[in-house]
Design a protein that fits this description.
CATH architecture of the largest domain: 2-Layer Sandwich
Oligomer: single chain
Shape: globular
CATH class of the largest domain: Alpha Beta
Strand order of the largest sheet: 1-2-6-3-5-4
Strand content: 15-25%
Radius of gyration: 25 Å
Number of helices: 19
Number of strands: 11
Order of helices and strands: HEEEHHHHEEHHHHHEHEEHHEEHHHHHEH
Structural class: alpha+beta
Helix content: 40-55%
CATH topology of the largest domain: Cytochrome Bc1 Complex, Chain A, domain 1
Largest sheet: 6 strands, mixed
Distance between the termini: 75 Å
């Protein structure tokens, strides 16, 4: 009976996968003369569509000293344009230019350690211009326009590899979408830049500087990567954030935010011909610009285990990462299967042993981190369960990784992991927003949006021998970085004695 049910489920999964391939075959690609690519898929009965514009720009592209600038642009994109967010651009423009110039002058004076009196004078002038400019600002107008049009899921996100904007709308609001999104690219305004910079600085303080887990992640990545910019936080370092200026932002925008560096996707029930006409009408006039250059820095091979401890009055957490190739390299698909096999579901190997059997952890997860465009880490996150320690959790993890390298996984385990991944892919393909995000992701990661489905051909082809080879090659001590949160009392008890000269 069990075998019959498994066969039936697998047959249904294969049929669903074939249907997913049919979806990909119906995607229409539109490439504008300025290099911007749009991927259009008309499907569904409800007259709605989901949209994504993904920029091939992330924190990995930031120059030293300007960490956080890509994330700042995500915030700025919601401040409006020359027609949205203002009572009148012609009247606002000189006030905004004066305000931004005063902000630059204040930052430069602070950087140059100017006299306190001079800094106070510049700050007073800046504060005066803030109040003068306030009369021209229509706060949250972009959000309100979209909300009045029936928008859902309006948001954005900055990652190390990309910056992504998304929203779902009724089909009859397609032209509104084109007007707003083309306007954000062509006529975006650095409105309330310094006030928003302070908001981001506070966001950083709450999520990283005063949060033990966020602090650990920063220390972990700074230890795992010594050369590649994956080592830097997407939100930016605190001092870099407070030193950002509108001059820096304008230069970064000119260098990176050209249409050739963007891919848009529309998925839902809309007229394809009308969509292409509107896209060409509104986005084609935007100047082309230059294609972003890839990061040339290659992380040197690791020659020994690295460890970092964070002493904090908090529950212990363990992060373990191993360097590995990135997609679309086939090895990355093997690690997708490995990580699923180890931690997806209550019957996965690590969950079964750590959480259920030995009860040494309350949670264990495995994932690729911190990005996908460049070589990255197969990462394990473990929350030890008292009275067990981080050392106990590490010991079991390493035993299970050694087992992967020395013993082939069973066909049942392997097929279960593959089925989980493929089923998640099929479910994602059924959701308009999820598919739009995947299409734009693979457009840049694979160099072809068709990798959205092609990737899972690689997943389905993973063998037990592939898993053993990947584990032997990459799950080695010398390729490992470990980060742990150590409660202060434990740290004090195990501290090395002071050495006096």
């Amino acid at each position: 009976m069990r075998r019959w049910i498994l066969t039936l489920a697998l047959g249904g999964l294969l049929a669903a996968t074939a249907g997913a391939q049919g979806i990909i075959d119906r995607v229409q690609e539109v490439v504008l003369d300025n290099g911007m690519t749009f991927l259009l898929l008309n499907r569904g009965e409800a007259p709605v569509f989901s949209s994504v514009i993904r920029w091939n720009v992330g924190s990995v592209d930031e120059p030293m000293g300007l960490t956080g600038i890509a994330h700042m642009f995500e915030h700025m994109a919601f401040k409006g344009t020359t027609t949205v967010g203002t009572t009148g651009w012609e009247a606002e423009r000189p006030a905004l230019e004066a305000l931004n110039a005063a902000g630059v002058a204040l930052v430069r004076a602070q950087q140059d350690s100017a006299e306190a009196e001079e800094i106070a004078r510049l700050r007073a002038e800046y504060d005066r211009l803030v109040e003068e400019h306030r009369q021209f600002v229509v706060s949250n107008e972009l959000d309100e326009i979209y909300s009045a049009a029936g928008a859902e899921d309006l948001n954005a996100g900055t990652e190390r590899d990309f910056t992504t904007y998304y929203v779902s709308l009724p089909a009859n609001q397609l032209e509104l979408w084109c007007l707003i999104e083309a306007g954000r690219i062509r006529d975006g305004v650095l409105r309330e830049f310094y006030a928003e910079r302070d908001v981001v600085h506070e966001e950083r303080r709450m999520r990283y500087d005063t949060d033990p887990e966020g602090f650990l992640v920063e220390q972990f990545l700074g230890t795992a990567f010594i050369a590649h910019p994956y080592r830097f936080p997407t939100i930016g370092w605190a001092t870099d954030i407070m030193n950002l200026t509108t001059e820096d932002a304008e230069e970064f925008f000119r260098e990176h935010y050209a249409p050739v560096n963007a891919c848009g996707a529309l998925v839902g029930n809309f007229d394809l011909d009308e969509a292409e006409r509107l896209i060409r009408e509104h986005f084609s006039p935007i100047p082309a610009g230059e294609r972003n250059r890839r990061v040339n820095t290659v992380e040197p091979a690791q020659r020994g285990e690295r460890r970092v401890e964070v002493h904090w009055d908090a529950s212990p957490i363990v992060l373990v990462g191993y360097h590995k190739p990135n997609a679309p390299d086939r090895t990355d698909a093997v690690f997708d299967v490995i990580q699923t096999l180890l931690t997806s579901g209550r019957s996965s190997r690590l969950y079964e042993r750590m959480v259920k059997r030995d009860q040494i952890a309350t949670d264990v997860e495995a994932f690729t981190f911190p990005g996908n465009k460049y070589p990255n880490l197969s990462t394990f996150y473990i929350q030890p369960r008292a009275p067990h320690t981080s050392a106990d959790a590490e010991r079991v993890l390493y035993e299970e990784l050694e087992r992967l390298a020395s013993e082939p996984v069973t066909e049942r385990e392997l097929q279960r992991a593959i089925n989980i991944l493929v089923a998640a892919h099929v479910r994602g393909m059924a959701n308009n927003m999820s598919l739009a995000r995947d299409l734009t992701f693979w457009h840049f990661i694979g160099g072809d949006w068709r990798w959205t489905d092609r990737w899972y051909d690689l997943v389905r082809g993973v063998t037990a021998e592939d898993i053993m080879e990947a584990a032997r090659t990459h799950y080695r001590r010398e390729n490992r970085t470990v980060g742990v949160i150590v409660p202060r009392e434990s740290a004090a008890a195990t501290a090395s004695p002071e050495v006096t000269p």
